[in-house]
């Protein structure tokens, strides 16, 4: 299979948390790059389409994420630029 990613993923096995709207769910980061990651979660149905990924070893490392794909318990993530997230939130609040 041809690799289509701009940056190769680095294989890791680090605990982290999916954080959204005050809810927190544990996960394991399986691989990561400057543009995204793959995580394993117990129940992907409870993971929102947009959330923050907080690394357990260093809570100062936080990535804004959106789901790119889901296969069983593994979720592929794309890291979103903070400016893009703020613009999306403003658009959503103006629609309400």
What are the main properties of this structure?
15% helix, 6-stranded antiparallel barrel, mainly beta, 96 residues, 1 helix, Thrombin, subunit H
Strand percentage lies at over 45%
Radius of gyration, in angstroms, nearest whole number: 14 Å
Q: Summarize the biggest pleated sheet.
A: 6 strands, antiparallel, barrel
Q: In total, how many domains does the architecture comprise? A: 1
Q: What fold name stands as the CATH topology?
A: Thrombin, subunit H
Overall, the morphology is globular
Percent range for helical residues? 10-25%
Q: For the largest beta sheet, what order do the strands appear in spatially? A: 1-2-3-6-5-4
CATH architecture: Beta Barrel
Beta strands, count:
6
Listing every helix as H and every strand as E from the N terminus to the C terminus, the arrangement reads EEEEEEH
Query: Based on helices, strands and strand pairing, what is the structural class?
Result: mainly beta
* Name of the level-1 CATH class: Mainly Beta
Unreliably modeled segments: none
Measured distance between first and last alpha carbons: 44 Å
Oligomer: single chain
Give the full name of the CATH homologous superfamily.
predicted glycosyltransferase like domains
On the 0-100 scale, what is the average pLDDT?
86
General description of the model:
The protein has 96 residues and is mainly beta. It has one domain (10-95): Thrombin, subunit H, CATH 2.40.10.220. The protein is 15% helix and 50% strand. It is built from 1 helix and 6 strands, in the order ββββββα. Strands 1-2-3-6-5-4 form a 6-stranded antiparallel barrel. It is globular. The chain starts with 9 loop residues before the first strand and ends with a helix. The mean pLDDT is 86.
